[in-house]
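Order emerges. For instance:

***
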Amino acid sequence: MPSFAFQGWQLAYTEFGGGPAALTPAGKRGRTASRAPSKDRPLIMAHAVMLSQAMHWPLAEDLAARGNRVITVDLLGHGQSDRPRELSLYTMGSFSQQLEALMDHLELDQAVIMGTSLGANASLELACRSPERLRGLVIEMPVLEGGLIGGALAFTPLLLALTFGERALGPLARVARAVPRALLPYHANVLVDVLRQNPAAGASVLQGLFYGRIGPSASLIRSLETPALVLGHRRDPVHPFSDAGMLAAEMPNARLIEANSIVELRVRPDRLLGEIAAFLDDVWEAPRQQAKRAAKRRRASTSG
């Protein structure tokens, strides 16, 4: 798995292309590409907290088959990337810098960023700091004001267990790592990867989330002109639908899509995948159409 450096630490990433016989990291044969993947349509996918880039691999495979250059990444403290103990490396600001460092490593002037939960908030931070680097945003399950209490209730017990129960959880992690990946279904492996992690590193990640701000302020959100597709669902206290709705309402160029459940995009992706693919087409094609219209106007004024 290729990697790049950020402040002396290594982050792992994976690139996806199309093709009828492309063997993906998910261990499945790729779908036949509807068109060749384009180097001009980069999409970076950022995962949720405690999970890894593997959660996005099936979606990355599908979106690459639709003509996008898709890159998934393990942020620090996750997956195959390094796991330093400095809390400042696990703030949303730092995660957003890691995404931009990946763009620099790949020599991408612009990209669309798709983030889920932690990845969604990190993407918003990147949009606030470097809006010129983003062609578009796909924000899945953001955690903003409405999710603060639910997030604290959900993650505080895990934080305490990882921080003070390292001696007890260490053997569990070793047992989980000993389970051959080939014995488990794909989605089961994604979840078991949480248990395979070093407990101390996981504690640092969660502590880092409390160390910095969770998301941008409302005034900053209202200033974001980046085109955005916001995905949310109901009945989830950590990712309340109200946060997704507020974000879509406050951002000038955002559109809200309601998922049927937290797992729809993972287990029955066709509807939402179609929305994401259409959004990617729009954000990449619009500047080309504008350039064509401008050229047509120039020709008309010259001939006149």
In short: The chain has one domain: 3-160+212-298. Residues 3-160+212-298 form a domain with the Rossmann fold fold (CATH 3.40.50.1820). The first strand starts at residue 3 and ends at 6. The radius of gyration is 20 Å.
